[in-house]
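Incident review: delayed structure delivery

Summary: a single-chain prediction request sat in the queue longer than the usual turnaround. Root cause was a stuck worker, restarted by the on-call engineer. No data loss occurred. The affected request and its eventual output are reproduced below so the record is complete for anyone auditing the incident later.

Affected input:
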Amino acid sequence: MSKDLNLKVTGLTKEYGPTKAVDNISFSITEGEVVGLLGPNGAGKTTTINMILGVLEPSGGDIEIFCKSAKENRSLVNEHLNLAAVYAQLPENLTVWENLYVFGLLYNIQDLKGRIKYLLKEFDLEKFKDQKAGVLSSGEQSRLNLAKAILNEPKLLLLDEPTASLDPSTSRLIREKIRKFVDRTGAAILWTSHNMNEIEAMCDRVLFLSHGKILLEGNPRTLPKEYNKKDLEELFIAVAREPLSLEL
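Output delivered after worker restart:
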């Protein structure tokens, strides 16, 4: 049985004057698939995610989400889309419960209080529900951010460095929660990270970006051997340092 196409990007480009931050990239993600978007800082990863979200207007190309044009159906597709990112912190003056409640209203979630109760327990946030988000530790904030990100049970979840700066225990917990969510819902995920062990553990496929272009694509566990590299980290370093020297 063929799987639904949750995201299709065709010829996507973002220009800032003479600079192409994203240069004519194309890829797709099916339901239940976790795809890693890899590359050094400045490669175009966050710019790509922001165009998918609708935060940035593409200079060219098309984005289809759930087989609908994102440009023409932005409000509709956003109901089933969400983001967790290390830089996208939630309002610090709102409590944990208030944050989830406000975002739940934005997504028009049915039985919102029941959904919040479930997420507080799922992410071990019950004892923090009346604390303001600004006083939480980085790990607690990451759990809250992820709880917000799956509040609407998105069919497409964008994760931009979701475990950056977290200790190994908290990072593992976040990965377990994400895997559980994917297995239960069949959501598609686009995941950026500089942690290659994390990518190998979580992703079905990876895309390597360099200077706004997709240079490599494949299974993170077998792709390094195709380019005579011992592991994904060594391949990442080669792409970051000398992308044009790779035999593509």
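Verification: The two ends are 32 Å apart (CA to CA).
Action items: add queue-age alerting; document worker restart procedure.
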